[in-house]
């Protein structure tokens, strides 16, 4: 049992919530912090501080007495949030400010090690135009040309963490996540990512109907199940390797295939209707050669295994939401009848 005192920034989010549980199971004392509580699960943290890490006082408070920090807090979402351009100022300002504050006050408080969750969105768009042959090796990040302001902020913050390492000796670990998915993640409302959005659409659709897919569906991605992501994080933090390193799956699929796979799991036959929408790059896949060489880690489970668990959870959320809406509708109807 470790007994170390650790902080998870973004503990009210999807990956942060799962990471808190893992750290608790390993014997850590865990403080979580976020601007909101977790939407779908009770926090497993020993202490949870509700606050905005853009606020210097909040950032100063949460790092006190902490030995290790996992910095996952960011202003983010899926393609519908990131690639429209409508939220660029908030995404860049909020996320950069969080990282500036956590590094500044973490260093002052004597934090021993900081993990930073970067993103595959930092990779140049010019290397991801061919959906069948994207290039996402860690050394391909420069010359820089991310496809979104979200990616530019992530790349800036990577450089910020490594500057603190070079100039101030702060021990940092940096990982670039590739499309992490699983239960207890955002599945509706506009900030959900592709796996959750497609699972929701399939769960909501009557058998024999259709669902919408943005683009032609030939764009490619790889998707990593949440448990595997947390394994990669812990492996990196327990190593002497600073990164940056990819944490993702190299099982690349088209979005059309992904949708068909969800339909198979659901036991539904649906048609796909393609429509224009925010897409990001044409192809992306995790290059896992470096992490396998440095940390002896690679994903151990096929996409379908994690997708089955995720679909079951999202189907349950859809069913519970429908039941709640029906109860509200029935209650409204009953009260109006009583008034008559």
Written description of the protein model:
There is one protein chain. This protein is an alpha/beta fold. The protein has a single domain, classed as NAD(P)-binding Rossmann-like Domain (Rossmann fold, 3-Layer(aba) Sandwich), CATH 3.40.50.720. The strands form 4 sheets. Strands 3-2-1-4-5-6-11 form a 7-stranded parallel beta sheet, with helices on both faces. Strand 5, helix 5 and strand 6 form a beta-alpha-beta unit. The C terminus is likely disordered.
Keywords:
disordered C terminus; 7-stranded parallel β-sheet; 16% strand; single chain; 13 strands; 340 residues; globular; Rossmann fold
Instruction: Count all strands and give the number.
Output: 13
Helix content: 40-55%
Shape: globular
Low-confidence blocks of residues: 334-340
Strand coverage percent: 15-25%
Q: Quickly give the CATH architecture.
A: 3-Layer(aba) Sandwich
What is the oligomer described by this structure? single chain
Widest sheet: strand ordering: 3-2-1-4-5-6-11
What value does the Rg take, in angstroms?
21 Å
CATH domain fold name: Rossmann fold
Q: Major β-sheet, in short? A: 7 strands, parallel
Short summary of the structure?
The chain is of the alpha/beta class.
How is the secondary structure organized here?
Blueprint lengths: L4 E5 L4 H12 L3 E6 L12 E4 L5 H7 L5 E4 L7 H4 L5 H22 L3 E7 L29 H20 L2 E7 L2 E2 L12 H11 L5 E5 L5 E2 L2 E2 H12 L7 E3 L5 E2 H12 L4 E5 L13 H7 L7 H37 L1
Parallel strand pairs: 1-2, 1-4, 2-3, 4-5, 5-6, 6-11, 7-10, 8-13
Antiparallel strand pairs: 9-12
